[in-house]
Amino acid sequence: MISLSATAIFWFIALGLLVGLLYGLIVKREGVTVPANIFWGVIASVLTGSLGILLDFGDGLLFAFVYTIAFLFIVNVFHQHHEEDKYGNIKPRIKVE
């Protein structure tokens, strides 16, 4: 049985950095910025990996990987990034007569 140690937290941070970077590069400008994806990836990976170890779901890395991707998906989907989403000034592009 693996315990929550500094080594495990190091691997969770490394996993969060990698997943956050890749997710940020994939979604580009459609979600939050790349540094924000990296930050939230590290936070999600450490939290879910620690939870995985405490609930005895293996070593926690697979658990952290899957739920970090899910967390970053939620962060990017619910981020308002378009001007019309922020300010509500939607101008119709098609003129109906």
Description:
It is a single chain. This protein has helices at residues 6-27, 34-54, 61-77, 83-87. With 97 residues, the protein is mainly α. The protein has one domain (6-80). The radius of gyration is 18 Å and the shape is elongated. The termini are far apart.
Key descriptive features of the protein:
about 100 residues
How many distinct folded domains? 1
Main beta-sheet strand count, sense and barrel state? none
Gap between N and C termini:
70 Å
What is the overall pLDDT average? 85
Number of strands: 0
Helical proportion?
A: 55-70%
Which stretches of 5+ consecutive residues score pLDDT under 50? none
Backbone CA Rg: 18 Å
Shape: elongated
- How many DSSP H or I helices? 4
SSE string, helices as H and strands as E: HHHH
- What class do helices, strands and sheet pairing give? mainly alpha
Beta-strand residue percentage: under 5%
Short description:
This protein has about 100 residues and is mainly α. It has helices at about 5-25, 35-55, 60-75, 85.
